[in-house]
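Running this now, will post back.
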Amino acid sequence: MSRKAPAPVASAEVQAQAQALLGHEFAQAELLNEALTHRSAAGAKGVGSNERLEFIGDRVLGLIIAEWLIERFPNEQEGKLGPRLAALVSKPALAAVAEAHGLAEMISVAPGEARRGVSGQANVLADALEALIGALYLDAGLPAARDFVRRMMESVVGAQAAPPKDPKTALQEWALKRALALPAYTVVEQSGPSHAPSFVIRVAVGKNTAEARAGAKRAAEQEAARMLLGMLPP
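Update: finished.
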């Protein structure tokens, strides 16, 4: 019977930094190590990487933020709450939070990837943050995960006064204000079975481009637009 390959063990210093950031001492240290392990530093086919914890952390984060928004905006309906949620759990937003708290220095990556600065890439940072949330949830439960998310994202949520615009609409308006051609969306990759497809979409405005992956074409377009907006000047 095949066994799950262990994640590389983070140094005692890195473990201490991560636990201080999370405000929790892990009973299952292997969860913390796995959350900090990028696919490049894991075993064959990514076994032992933080991808599984990122999967559950993404869901836990969405629940916590949705609960928080319901609490903060009791009179808003789904049409306004949805864009708020999408903006707060987007890769650029999470990457900014992760970067501000030094997460890049805690992620284990392969030596070659480290030289390329992979640990500082937005997708890698955002995924690692979600993986840490997933690990915290599995080790300590929802209240601990909720406390961490609210502490880390308090300023981001507090700064969101008005519901953000739909990313595709906002990107179109950005282009029109500068007399540029409208954003062009291209399917770079389509894979997976019909019941669980995966799309990679590239959006281009002038010479600026961004790519995103999602399980639906529209969702990938929205995420690509959101990522590009995060790269463009206001």
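The CA atoms of residues 174 and 233 lie 10 Å apart. More later if anyone needs it.
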